[in-house]
Amino acid sequence: DALRKELQSESDMSSVSSDDELIMESVKISSNDTKEIEEENYFGYSFFLNRDINFFDNIPSPPDFKLGPGDQIILSLWGETNLRENFVINKEGLIYYENVGFINLSNKTIDEAESTLEEELSKIYSTLKDKNKPTKLKLEIGKLKSLNVYFSGEVMNPGINLIHPFSDIFSAIVQSGGVKNSGSLRNVQLIRDNQIITQTDFYSFFTDGKSDFSNLRILDGDVIHIPVVKKRVQIIGQVITEGYYEMNDEETIVHLIRYAGGLEANASSLFILDSITPLSDRIGDDNAITSKFITINDNHKLNNGDLITINPIGDVATKVEIFGRVKSPGKYPALNTNLKDVLIAAGGFEDPLYSRSIRDDEILILRKDSNQFYGLEFKIPFEESEKFNLVSGDKIFVYENINYDNLFSIEVNGEVN
Q1: With left for phi above 0 and alpha for psi between -120 and 50, is residue 79 left, alpha or beta?
Q2: Which residues touch 410 (CB under 8 Å, ≥6 apart)?
Q3: pLDDT tens digits along 77-122
């Protein structure tokens, strides 16, 4: 009854004041709880930092690994002729074999080098090609020399770096110290003999784990160039991973959201785009920044420096609240339900003993009027509750039958102390 009286006695001024306080408190809480993007939160760059790569001498060499100056090879012959010799490839890519001369093994795979040696050594070991009494040849890699690879552009440590010979372009960048935040991760160039051999986009690897760079080996003297980012966009709000993302010219808001891990469940369908007009397209600076609503279906292309904000959806009133003599007082759905549905869900009305303690001839419902005060009152017996439809925000009061099981003291008479 006290709660009922309080709901019905609210005045206009107290309501306005209360609403203002709620708004101010909401703003305060919102500002405190908003996730702030740190300046260093650039997507992808952490993949290259603080990674200690361990290469082991006993790992098998990749099938496409190519020999070069400084590599040690172990040549074994067995059969009619038995020997085992070590050679180090000189700076011209040659080894010297007695009674044969210099043999060029530079830039050859192990299989190609074995074929070359078999051809050259058959001049002094005729059984290498003898099918009846053959001598077999096997080539192994001994010690490997590090590769001298040059790094240019937006890298942490530009210049020459020593790289493990089994490295691909990704592990080479890791060994060199990583990429600056100003460097592109979508147009990494491998240059050999002043020609761009390949341009690597790491985003497919970061988001899907798909790599197209692992099959291309680094050679001594290669150049890895990291150009400056051309287009970068920031996304904040209800996405899995807020941050700054590098975008290609043909990519849209759909690609950006995929890179950010997708939308959260409470994300709004309307996005706020704060866009910067490119310098080449500006007439003046006064209107260089525009703000508008977009959706994921707009297929909108983005400019360098754009900001996408994904706001959460607002709360929707969809419940009623029940108080009093029920087993489970609290909030229940209001949509597509009637009063009886909520009373049964709250419990007690179908319990033969418990229901005797309920005053079921008069269930009270308070409802907001046009002024948003609880000024409307309905009294519905339980037998007619199925016909009464509820509205979101209704307050339901179930009173106790004070004439049932309500003894607060007892008397004991007779032969007792």
Answers
A1: left
A2: none
A3: 998 888 899 999 888 889 999 888 999 998 888 889 999 998 899 8
pLDDT of residue 15: 45
- Answer for the pair 110, 139: CB distance below 8 angstroms, yes or no: yes
**Edge to edge, what strands does the sheet with 289-294 contain?**
243-246, 232-237, 307-312, 267-276, 289-294
58 to 54, 68, 76, 141, 236: CA distances (angstroms): 12, 19, 18, 10, 47
Q: Under DSSP, is residue 352 helix (H, G, I), strand (E, B) or coil?
A: coil
**pLDDT 10s digits, 41-51:** 899 998 887 66
Which residue, among 401, 408, 406, has the nearest Cα to 348 in the 3D structure? 401
The number of residues making up the chain comes to 417
Q: How far apart (Å, rounded) are the C-alpha atoms in residues 242 and 236? A: 5
3-state secondary structure of 268: strand
User: pLDDT for 150-199, tens place per residue?
Assistant: 999 999 999 999 888 888 899 899 988 899 999 999 999 999 889 998 99
3-state secondary structure of 94: strand
Element (H or E) spanning 33, and its range?
Answer: helix 12-33
Is the confidence at residue 297, as pLDDT, over 90? no
The pLDDT of residue 33 is 44
Burial 243-271 (b: 16+ CB within 10 A, else e): bbbbbeeebebebbbebbeebeeebbeeb
Backbone phi, then psi, for 65, in 5-degree steps?
-70, 135
State yes or no: pLDDT of 10 exceeds 70.
no
Give the number of other CB atoms < 10 A from CB of residue 172: 22
Alpha helices per DSSP H over 76-132 = 110-121
Question: By three-state DSSP, how is residue 240 classified?
Answer: coil
Asked if 329 contacts 323 with a C-beta cutoff of 8 angstroms, the reply is yes
User: What are the start-end ranges of the E strands in 266-318?
Assistant: 267-276, 289-294, 307-312
CA distances from 201 to 198, 210, 289 (A): 10, 11, 30
Q: In whole angstroms, what is the distance from residue 178 CA to residue 104 CA?
A: 36
Q: Alpha-carbon distance 144 to 124, whole Å?
A: 29
Amino acid identity of 155?
A: V
Q: Beta partners for 277?
A: none
Tokens of 111: 């299989």
Amino acid at 287: N
